[in-house]
Amino acid sequence: MRGFKDLLAYNKAFEVSMQIFEVSKKFPNEETYSLTDQIRRSSRSVCANLAESYRKRIYLKHFLSKVTDAQMENSETEVWLDFAVACEYILQEQYQILLDLNDEVGKLLHHIFNNPEKYGVTVN
Known about the structure:
mainly alpha
């Protein structure tokens, strides 16, 4: 593996983040510093935490900590998606597509957490 950008989890998380960016452009102005900002930040943080975990892969505990942070941010993104659909800022169909992608990212993160040796981490 050449780098964190080669991780399927990173690429899927990046895709979700960019789709969220696009749909959130249509959120009302009064949501700019609340829902819009929060959902963009949490979705982008999944990617950032994966990058950090990859760079810390020589230390198992640090690697797992950053992967856990990515999982936390991914879960937070799901909550913001729940609010977006409940407030009728996105359609149910958009919500389901984003939720399914977000769930896929969650499964990939779970795999990384449970199989760190497959990602260059030395497990003693």
